[in-house]
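User: Assemble these into one structure.

Assistant: Restating your components, then the assembled model:
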Amino acid sequence: MSVETRSPSEKADFKRELTEVVPHLRAFARGLCGRPDMADDLVQETLLKAWAAQERFEPGTSMRAWTFVILRNAYLTDMRRNRFRGDYDETVAERILTAPAGQEEPIHLSDMHRALLTLPPERREALLLVGAGGFSYEEAAQICGCAVGTIKSRVGRARSTLNDMLAEGNIPQRSIEDETAHRAILEELDDVAAGNGETAKID
Amino acid sequence: MASGKETSPTDAAAQNTKSAKAADQPQWADGLKQLYDSVVEEPLPDSFKDLLSQLDAADADDANQNGNG
C-alpha cells in the first residue's frame, strides 16, 4: 500500500510534521496509560497507523489533533484487550515526574499523576486534552468524537474529582488493580468507544 | 486566603461552571501542564526517528517498484 497521490514534498511535510508531534504523543500517551514503556509502545503503534493512513491527513490541518485521534483509538482498543491493566509504576513516576527545582510545589506531581490515573478514562482524556495539551473544548470534542458540552462536563467532573482527592490527600493507591474498579472502567470504555463514531474520523 | 483550608468544596463546584478559565484554575492545574510538558521536553528516544526513517525508506522502495514495474 504505497502512497501515490501525494507529491514528494507533501510526503516530506507529512514526515516532518509527524516527527514534530512525537513528543506530544508521548505526553498524551503517558497521561492516558501511566507507564512510560507502554506509552511509548502506544506511540509507535500510532506512528505506524498514521503513516499507513497518511493520505487521509488534510495538509494544513492540525497534525497533533489528527494523531491524537489515532492514539486514543489505539489506546481504547488496547485497554479492552487488557494490555494496560493496573500497571501504574510509582517508582518510575517518581523518577520522571520531578518538579522544576526551586519552585514551590504544593502538590506532588506523582500524587497528581496517580490521581489522574484513577479517573474514568473519558474524563481523564478530556482533562489531559484541555488542561494539559492546551486544546480548546471544541478541538477536544472533535478528537473524542463527542459534543462540546460533553467535553465541558467531563473536564468539569474530572477537575472536581481531582480537587477532592488532592485537597483531602485521599488518592486511591491502586484503584485500577482492583477487580471491581477495573471492570467498571472496561464497561465505561465500551461506552466511550461506542460514542467514538463519525466526528472522530477526521476527514 | 487568610485562614483555614485553601480549597473548599464550594470552590470546586464553582469551577465546574462554564466559566472555568485561567482565572479560577485550581492549584494543581499548573501541575497537570507540568506533567505533560515534562514528557514533551524529554529527549526523544532514537527508536521513534528510526521507525519513521524505516517507514519512509519502505515507501520509497514501493514507489520505485511500482513506478518501474
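The CA atoms of residues 29 and 62 of chain B lie 47 Å apart.
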